[in-house]
Predict the structure.
Amino acid sequence: MPSSTAFTAVAARRTLGKPFVAEPAQPPPAAHPTASPTSPSNGTNKGKRDWPAPVRSYVQRSFAEENFLPGVNHQEMETKLKQVIGQSVEAGTLAVVDWDNLPLPQMMIQDERARKQSARLPSSPAQSNSFPTSTVRETNETNTKKRKSSDLERVDETGDGTAPWSQTDGRNAFENRISYADKRSRNDAGSEPGSSKSSHVLEGRKKRFEHTARRPSPTRPWRISTIRDISPQQPEGPIVGRCQDLEKKYFRLTSAPNPDTVRPLSVLEKTLDHLKRKWKKERNYFYICDQFKSLRQDLTVQRIKTGFTVNAYEIHARIALEKGDLSEYNQCQTQLRALYAQKLGGHPTEFLAYRILYFLHTSNRTDMNDVLADLTLPEKQDPAVRHALETRSALALGNYHRFFQLYLDTPNMGAYLMDMFVARERLSALSAICRAYKPDVKLRFVTEELGFESDDESARFLCDQGAQHFLEERDTGVHLVTGKASSFFEPALKAACARPDSKPVV
């Protein structure tokens, strides 16, 4: 029979903290059922968002090479562009914002940097040396070791900043035996509540923090403009202009439009007639382009979408096409597509043909396929559209003979667009002629096949390409020695196939 002891064994206490009490083990939480792949909350296939045409044009102009600014990289532009479009989507102003006249993301970034540099105020020493009370308190809490949440609460209640084990109330006889991890904890524990040094330091800190808390934060002189600031949307609806001036310079909107600086529809109609007469008389493109952009801006802020709007955009597009300004032409073409969709009149088939020729110029096969897929039977039967389609077919087949026949018989203003890439096609045709006809061909043959008006014009084109040493004058006339020039036109052809220039020709 085992002997029973007269006492119960208890483990010796080795710390000053509260004794540890083991908590009952909690049962493990029930596993949540895993959502099946077919669950609707597991992500559904979102459809492709149909962005408005002005927004797509705005994005294209943002990443165009001619609009790049030094010091603004691609990542900053993409972030700013997402911010601008996202704010517009959240505000519901996607269809209201004047995307044609809205500053590009790189311009917004550059303006913000300029405002920040010019309006930055020098900070005072008091501001630079003072910190909020919460920051100092969080720093002290982080640096102080072996404190518990209950101890910190008691420190806040006492308000004197002394740890509870440092209060000499006669109940803690082991205070002087405690070793501290850092100097700050030792100083705090060794100071008594009545110590003049501790009270003076705490009082000084308290006054400094209260002074900092009462000081109003300086107002920043700059403010980042958002899409809501530059949106022409008004709570009561579209504005009605009151300006009676026929001519007005174009300025980008940075705030809500002022009716006193916006011309009403009746004045805009007179302005359009005035600009047409002035263009025929003076032919000053930069002035006319600025005036048309101002006219288009007044139409946009007043939300005027009528046959007059279509007419204004068509006239501006034709003028830009005549001067080779593809940037302004693209802006007008983008707006015209949206206006034609509303059946407001105008000449949609004429500009559809221009659009096809423009894609031939830029070698944009993706957009070309989209246009061909959307063509209707009445549109295909239009003479201008049919001519553009035949031109595309001739280039696709490499039939330069048919291409230059179509070039000499272009309807409307399509010849201005074909002039932009006819030199490229002439180089391609010359390369094919040099490979097919050897040892030489007459210059007259080149003139007729490549759509030149005279032999002098064809000879001048060859000299401009540096091929004058391949021309030989004989008894039967001037000949092009194709045997020697078979590979000469290849480098010039590659250079001509580079990205086209969209700057206006003055």
Remarks:
- The two ends are 120 Å apart (CA to CA).
- Confidence is low (pLDDT under 50) at residues 21-27, 29-46, 123-159, 217-235.
- The chain has 23 helices and three strands.
